[in-house]
Amino acid sequence: MWFKATESCNCIEPQWPADELLVKYQYISDFFIALAYFSIPLELIYFVKKSAVFPYRWVLVQFGAFIVLCGATHLINLWTFAVHTRTVAMVMTAAKVLTAVVSCATALMLVHIIPDLLSVKTRELFLKNKAAELDREMGLIRTQEETGRHVRMLTHEIRSTLDRHTILKTTLIELGRTLALEECALWMPTRTGLELQLAYTLRQQNPVGYTVPIHLPVINQVFSSNRAVKISPNCPVARLRPHTGKYLPGEVVAVRVPLLNLSNFQIYDWPEVSTRSYALMVLMLPSDSARQWHVHELELVEVVADQVAVALSHAAILEESMRARNLLIEQNVALDLARREAETAIHARNDFLAVMNHEMRTPMHAIIALSSLLQETELTVEQRLMVETILKSSNLLATLINDVLDLSRLEDGSLQLETTTFSLHSVFREVLNLIKPVASVKRLSLTLHLASDLPAYAVGDEKRLMQTILNVVGNAVKFSKEGSISITAIVAKPESFKDARIPEFLPVPSDSHFYLRVQVKDSGSGINPQDIPKLFTKFAQSQAVQTKGPAGSGLGLAICRRFVNLMEGHIWIESEGIGKGCTVTFIVKLGIPDRPNESKLAFAPKVPGNHVSTNFGGLKVLVMDDNGVNRSVTKGLLLHLGCDVTTAGSSEECLRIVSPEHRVVFMDVCTGLDGYELAMRIQEKFKKRQDRPLIVALTGNTNKVTKENCMRVGMDGLILKPLSVDKMRGVLSELLEHRVLFEAI
Questions:
Q1: Is 111 within any annotated ligand binding site?
Q2: Cis peptide bond upstream of 722, omega within 30
Q3: Which of 28, 361, 410, 411 is the most exposed, fewest CB within 10 Å of its CB?
Q4: Within 10 Å of residue 276's Cβ, how many Cβ atoms?
């Protein structure tokens, strides 16, 4: 009991002198402190409940417990201002102990939490900085987008045309409008490249004539950089307008414009060719403002300068293309005009040759026919010699006419090969028979050697082949006074094609064709080796021939070469010099017939000279020719052969006279259609074929059209003038035997 009494006394014993007013204030303060402490945890609970992302909820719970305990301590402390029991003291003690524990734990926890909170603050500052940087980048992007939009707009305006002057003027106008410039100018290099000339300005209308030296330091500074450079408003290239008023001149920048292609670019004395040349673009801001150049504006100016350079290069290329196209058009017009003139000249020449051919063959026909008739009469030796001379000269003239016409057709490309199956051996034998009489007179030994593997028949142009062989052999006889002439014909072997003398000849072996190699060797006058290339030129002869031998027309070998080329071959001449003879060799391509033993077609390429049937007594023949001399000559030939001849001078007379009794009708066909119409009307007159006479055309025209027209209207034959007695005899024999005869043209 004493202990309890003592403890009670100690508990209620005052610690200091109590002042009732102070105690009252402390009592009220503790109440409100306790009330505040209890309200703060409620607010924290509300905050934690509403916040879904706060990372330190357990810390707030611990802090809330600390505050609650502090509030409880102050609340309990209200009972200690008066006499209180031991229970109140124990509760007060427990509350203070718990408050001390929780406060220490909270303090220790805050030591660990504060660095995290500080790092969060750091991240927050970092994020703010990043956000600010991002805002700046977005501003740059927006600026670049704006610059790009302006660039696209300017590029579109600049490239909307490919005219140089329009490009440059448009550039200044669009830059002035986009950047709100006071002035914009373009300086171009002069032809000498030593000065820059003011070529275009934004405001001034006629800036031509103002020049500055190109080697000024400010110009070198701009030309040495690919960026826009700020320059002084007082430098020569920037003094574009006089400064007036109280404002200072605006900032000025200059940028170089590469002139990538200035070929033939003539403007205000621009250089004709500039490989590394620049123009200078000067841009001036308004003088009545404090505005300065921004980075994006300078970038815009640089991009536009590059675009102008590209547009100028494209314009230059277009101008060159247009100039080339116009030049090509002019050349095509000139070529077309020249072609038409050439065609007109060729037609005129062909018409002239056709007329001259006909007109020259007409008297030749009379000369040869009458000479051949005279030759078959009783003549003295002297008279016969003169007649033979006339015949030889006439035949030579006829050969010359044929050579000229062949050469003309070879040159204009109208001559085409006529491919037929023919006897190859017969061609060589016939050439030998034709040349032998002349060789015998000159006492020349003439030999022919045909290889054992030489095909008997071949496919090709028999007439052109024979003409080539005859021309080469004829030259050998003509230019040989004594000795021998040998003709060798073999099938060319592939290894012989590698001969160094024929490097440009590249034949292609095949089973459907072979290559004929003909070599004619003589012991005649020979040729200087340096003169050999000239022999294949028309109207050309070697010096030895001109001085020592018989003269010719100079057409034979030129024609032979063209014939050989048409037959896909090659011809060449070899000689060791004057007096050492000559060797002519040629190779031609011939086809292999499907049936080698088949006989030749009735359309013979030549007129046979000897026939068994030479008696034509009683054969009724009608001759129609509007030329009286030719009519009489042809009649004389036929009368000499024993024919019963009737003549007509016009188509109407011929149509009236012709009857079934006439076996053959010879009619002259010229360049007109009169003879062809007559042939068709004769066929219409005789319904039955056995009653119709054979219709044969006599012509001096050697073009292929004449033969085609004759065959088209149904004629039975075509004979070339001039005619001799032997030729007429062969014509009649062939006609009566085969009822058809077309002499090759």
A1: no
A2: yes
A3: 28
A4: 8
The answer to whether 29 is a known ligand-binding residue is: no
pLDDT band at 271 (very low <50, low <70, confident <90, very high): very low
Q: Indicate which CATH number applies to the domain containing 226.
A: 3.30.450.40
Looking at the fold, whether 82 and 193 belong to one and the same domain comes out as no
The verdict on residue 236 lying in a domain is yes
- Tell me the one-letter amino acid at 646: T
Helix (H) or strand (E) holding 651: helix 651-657
**Looking at residue 519, what is its pLDDT?**
92
Query: For residue 305, is it within any domain?
Result: yes
> Does 36 fall in a domain?
yes
pLDDT tens, 559-579?
Answer: 788 888 888 888 888 888 787
Question: Would you say 551 is a known binding-site residue?
Answer: no
Query: What is the per-residue DSSP string for 82-93?
Result: S---HHHHHHHH
Tokens of 552: 């010719």
Cβ within 8 Å of residue 293, ≥6 positions away: 228, 230, 251, 253, 285
Tens digits of per-residue pLDDT, 461-490? 888 888 889 888 888 888 888 888 999 999
477 marked among binding-site residues: yes
Annotated ligand binding at 553? The verdict is yes
- Give the separation between CA 306 and CA 257, rounded to whole angstroms: 7
In sequence order, what E strands does 165-240 have? 183-189, 195-201, 211-213, 229-231
C-beta of residue 700 within 8 angstroms of C-beta of residue 743: no
Count of domains observed in the chain: 4
The answer to whether 312 is a known ligand-binding residue is no
Find out whether 538 is annotated in a ligand binding site.
yes
End-to-end CA distance of the chain: 173
C-alpha to C-alpha distance for 353 and 341, rounded to whole angstroms: 18
**ω into residue 17 within 30 of 0, thus cis?**
no
Contact 625, 698 (CB under 8 A): yes
- Please report which confidence band the pLDDT of residue 613 belongs to, taking 50, 70 and 90 as the band edges: very low
Tokens describing residue 413: 């490309």
- Please tell me what DSSP assigns to residue 524: S
Give me the domain span that covers residue 273: 161-319
3-state class (DSSP) for residue 329: helix
Distances (CA, A) of 2 to 7, 8, 646: 9, 10, 197
731 contacts: CB under 8 Å, gap ≥ 6: 607, 696, 717, 719, 723, 741
Q: Tell me, what amino acid is at 106?
A: T
Q: Is 610 annotated as a binding residue?
A: no
Give how far Cα 209 sits from Cα of 55, 164, 182, 190, 656, Å.
80, 19, 21, 11, 94
Bridge partners (DSSP) listed for residue 717: 696, 741
Q: Is 461 flagged in the annotation as binding?
A: no
Looking at residue 503, its pLDDT comes to: 60
* pLDDT tens digit sequence for 510-532: 788 899 999 999 888 788 877 77
Residue 379 inside a domain? The answer is no
pTM of the model: 0.46
Residues 465 and 573 placed together within one structural domain of the fold: yes
Residue 363 identity (one-letter amino acid): P
Judging by DSSP bridges, how do beta strands 694-699 and 717-720 pair with one another? Answer: parallel
Tell me the C-alpha distance between 435 and 474, whole Å. Answer: 7
Consult the annotation and say whether 611 binds a ligand.
no
Q: What is the CATH number of the domain that holds 502?
A: 3.30.565.10
